[in-house]
Amino acid sequence: MHLEGFPQPVTLRDGTEVVIRPLCAIDGAELLEFYRAFTEEERQFLRDDVSSPEWLERFLKKVDFEEVVSLVAELDGAIVGETTLYRTRYGWTRHVGEIRVAVARDLRRKGLGIALSRAVVKLATNLGIEKMVVQVVENQVGARHTFEKLGFTQEATLRAHVKDIRGLKRDLLVLSNDVSHIWHAMEAMVADYSPMHE
Ligand SMILES: CC(C)(COP(=O)(O)OP(=O)(O)OC[C@H]1O[C@@H](n2cnc3c(N)ncnc32)[C@H](O)[C@@H]1OP(=O)(O)O)[C@@H](O)C(=O)NCCC(=O)NCCS
Which CATH superfamily hosts domain 8-193? Predict the structure, then answer.
């Protein structure tokens, strides 16, 4: 899949060089290996059972770069990070995109989470999405910090909405970022543009 601006080289805080690029159909085995390395506790908070071949098969079919977009971070042929953008092309939330991001444990706290999230937010904006949301559990501090650094703020709390591995209920926070002003500014620029005055 070719997407404008990718592959995108990224240098992490410790000098490690990774490449962010769109997921390909042949990435299946590496993606499964990447998600299987997560702890069971972390996998509980993800929306799907990302360690199962059935999930992988469904996911690869869904990634059409229309409604589901997936970017991966690659290091020495292995997948070390993944971010997904979900949107619908029809209905009253067609201007909204939902984002998910995950980074391999041994590469965390080096800036890869931010780099992947920034790449997917930029891509979503280019696709015309006006509002982005991300769901994080109250104790997912890293995820919360990552998205707050990109301008997301807490919009809603769903009380006792998720259960962790021990059956403990936790709040689910909905963070959002309204980027419609970027589109309004661009529309105003186009409206103001008059080639006669060039
Ligand atoms: C959330 C996640 C993707 C962050 O990845 P990462 O590569 O560690 O993120 P970064 O290194 O870019 O850090 C981004 C910011 O968050 C902060 N941060 C990251 N993890 C943190 C933690 N555990 N505690 C406190 N702050 C944290 C960093 O300090 C950084 O801010 P800084 O630049 O001011 O230092 C990663 O922790 C992960 O994969 N978690 C499991 C999956 C998950 O929870 N996904 C979120 C659901 S959408």
Answer: Gcn5-related N-acetyltransferase (GNAT) (3.40.630.30)
